[in-house]
Amino acid sequence: MAAITSTGLGSGLDISSLVSQLVSAESTPATNRINKREAKLQTELSAVGMFKGALSEFRSSVFSLTLSSTFNSKVATSGNMSLFTASASYSATVASYNIKVNQLAQAHSLELAAPVNKDAQFNGGVLKISVGAGVSRDVVIENGSTLEKVAKAINDTSGIGVTATILNNGDDRQLVLKSTATGVDNTINIAVTGADEVGKLSLASTFTYSGADAGMKQLQEAQNASITIDGSNTATTSSSNTFLFTSGSLSGISLEVKSVGADAAASTAKLDIGRSTTSAIDAVSAFVKGFNSLVSAVKSLSSYDANTKQAGPLQGDAGVRSVNFQLRRMLGESFGESAFNSLSSIGVETQRDGALKFDSSKLKTALDTDPSSVATLFTGAQASGGAAAVEGLGSRFKDYLDNVLSSKGSLSSRLDTLNKNIAGLADERQALNLRIGKLQTRYLKQFSAMDALVGRLAGTSSFLSQQLEGMAAIYTKK
User: What is the tens place of the pLDDT at every residue in 304-360?
Assistant: First the structure.
């Protein structure tokens, strides 16, 4: 809006103040209307965003209810955790086994046949080191290298699969090479190229190894871990101390051996694989907590406070009512024909205030009694024989919330509309400012013209007054 220049020299009126008041009287109501609409839109935008965020958080608590693994969780228990520990995936079979630990996995290690002096130097050459059937790596040894430099060259070679360690004993130095992986498939082999030189230690005579003691000798044999299951005549082996069973009766079990007992009895312990209710109880508990948080958020956004006479920004909102209705309708539905076909049957009850109450002991009893039906309640079941397919509660909640929260869902569309309407108010403000600027210019032009006219009229009046006074004086002298 242009600055108002003070006028009124001809009329004596405060035209600046007059124009300002007229412009303000025109612009203030329109500005107030825009401000009020913007405040309302911003409040609604914030409220809808909060509602969408609360739904998204609830959606996160629903996901685990759609997974079969949540309700088919298994637990593996070792009878002697100093011998072995174990874990089970949901696909494991409930059973018990006797596990005997025969031996632990070992990494192959070598050492020099004899220590060398710390100042001793080697001729130049290449150590071609391979671990098992892996690709060999060339370690270039510079002429005149000490044992420390040889060890550094080995350790600096990427992907070699061995580590070199120097052991000190006075002026003598011992070098130990150890495979970074355990098991018989990770044995170390070393071939050496390089011509011997007078006055220097032979690289070939010191470091060659191909399965039998030569320049280097075996310090520790490469060894697989071995266990016997239920007294079988055939041992089960692993290159590491971890056994991963992907087939057979132990499929889904991971077992890690820790030690070997003094005798067969001390090396044997029971492995029990049973059902676990923990993951299911935790998932339903998270669902109840997530729903109650949503209820609290909706109450804050849509309730009416009789004391303050203040209504929430989404009170009576049709979109909120629709979502709330659909969620509560699903809470009360039953799924399947078993005794555990509803939330109330497994310990989830709706309270008078709309929140949920969870009795975990009731769910545990249901899981112990009929875990399949509890799983079907949440995850559903495919059609089988004459039985129709069942859509689980978890899947229904997830699909509905995914639809509501999607980029093409009702809430996203509403937020887009609100943002567009708020952006449109900026255009209205600009148009109003242009109109008020033109109005101010017109008022100034009109009042300036009036001021000039009043000034001219005042001058004419003064002239006429002087003339009349002069004429009156003439007649008076006569």
Answer: 777 777 788 888 888 899 999 999 999 988 876 788 989 999 999 999 999 999 999
CA-to-CA distance for 175 and 106, rounded, in angstroms? 19
Cβ neighbors of 355 (< 8 A, separation 6 or more) are 291, 292, 295, 296
Domain boundaries, the chain: 74-104+224-275, 107-220
Tell me whether residue 5 is exposed, middle or buried, using C-beta atoms within 10 angstroms of its C-beta: 0 to 12, 13 to 18, 19 or more. Answer: exposed
Find where tokens 């009170």 sit: 315
Query: How much is the pLDDT for 315?
Result: 86
Q: Confirm if 162 and 220 have CB atoms less than 8 A apart.
A: no
Tens digits of per-residue pLDDT, 192-230? 999 999 999 999 999 999 988 888 999 999 999 999 999
CA distance 54 to 137: 57
Helix (H) / strand (E) element for 9: namely none
Contact between 14 and 264 under an 8 Å Cβ cutoff? The reply is no
Q: Where are the beta strands (DSSP E) in 132-267?
A: 137-141, 162-169, 172-182, 188-193, 216-220, 225-229, 236-238, 242-244, 253-257
Residue 72: CB atoms within 10 A of its CB come to 19
**pTM of the full structure:** 0.70
Helix (H, G, I), strand (E, B) or coil at 163: strand
Cα(225)–Cα(102) distance, integer angstroms: 8
> Residue 376: what residue type?
T
- What top-level class would CATH report for the domain 107-220? mainly beta
Burial of 6 (0-12, 13-18, 19+ CB in 10 A): exposed
Q: Using CB atoms within 10 A of its CB, is residue 94 exposed (0-12), middle (13-18) or buried (19+)? A: exposed
Of 418 and 224, the structure prediction assigns the larger pLDDT to 224
Asked if 364 and 330 touch (Cβ cutoff 8 Å), the reply is no
Across 23-44, b (16+ Cβ under 10 Å) vs e yields beebbeeebeeeeeebeebeeb
∠ Cα 364 369 373 (to 5°):
90
